[in-house]
Amino acid sequence: MVGSIFQVVPVLDVLRGEAVHAVGGQRARYQPLRSILHPTSDPLELARAYRDTLGLSSLYLADLDAITGGAPNASRYRSLTGLGLDLWVDSGLRDERDLPPLLDLDPDRVSVVAGLESLRGPETLAAVLDRIGPDRLVVSLDLWAGRPITASPEAWNGDDAEALAARFVALGVRRLLLLDLTRVGKGNGPGVDRLLAAIRAASPHIDVALGGGITAIEGVERYRSQGAAAVLIGSALHDGRIGRDQLAALLWK
Predict the structure, then answer these.
(1) For residues 46-69, b (16+ Cβ closer than 10 Å) or e, as one string?
(2) Distance from the first to the final alpha carbon of the chain
């Protein structure tokens, strides 16, 4: 919810039924995930480990089959919320006609992620907001090496990230995610510090999350101090660079 306390949100990228290791946005090259949290790449078991081993209560799910044109896996979403997790679901939402499988899910548990790389245009975003409301919608400002990725450049009429963020806010968006796909899994940080600062200065009432390449708890602390509402983390949880004790010290002290 908007105005919530700072969150660390673990990530699951799921492709053909398996959790995969996302690196640099090169989806065709993603391989099954290897994690110290569970011996298999089963998404449900890894989500359970996020909850039980790391003590985390939310989850960002990238349904890569849906993002690349397939149907959303609503049964998987229900299984994950059945673990008591609050779910952020990116299922490649293109317009309001893609919403029905998501509308049947628990509105108190499931936030819908609308990615710039999939959304067809501002009118589409306005229609989605009208259907589900701003508290349940997370708009992902998807980037590629710092430049916005748009499904329809003509519809969005520009590729300046700060200007697009302002446009989202003007439409009524209250929750933003800054995600540079080229930095995912690379370990060199999200690369969105200036953009975060600009959005926070212009729209301090907006919740801004970010992700991609965070490798240490110090990075999490830094972005919290810069006003981020949440950070998304994947690889650093799976290889143990960030563990339960560090998360507990940061989140529950």
Answers:
(1) bbbbbbeebebbbbbbbbbbbbee
(2) 22
Q: Is the pLDDT of residue 56 over 90?
A: yes
| Cα(133)–Cα(99) distance, integer angstroms | 12
The pLDDT score that the predictor gives to residue 185 is 66
pLDDT at 220: 95
Dist CA 92 CA 37 (whole Å): 27
Both tokens of residue 145? 């090496």
pLDDT by residue (tens digit) across 93-115?
999 999 999 999 999 999 999 99
Confidence of residue 25 (pLDDT cuts 50, 70, 90): low
Residue 253 has pLDDT above 70, yes or no: no
- Quote the CA–CA distance of 253 and 46 in Å, as a whole number: 25
Task: Confirm if 110 and 81 have CB atoms less than 8 A apart.
Answer: yes
* Residue carrying the six token digits 């992700």: 211
Nearest to 164 by CA among 146, 187, 185: 146
Give phi and psi for 94, each to the nearest 5. Answer: -100, -40
- CA 233 from centre of chain: 9
Residue 88: is it exposed, middle or buried by C-beta count within 10 angstroms (0-12/13-18/19+)? buried
Tokens for 230, please give them: 């949440």
For residue 4, pLDDT beyond 70: no
DSSP string, 146-201: TEE--S-HHHHT---HHHHHHHHHHHT--EEEEEEGGGTTTSS----HHHHHHHHH
Handedness of CA 130, 132, 135, 138 (dihedral sign): negative
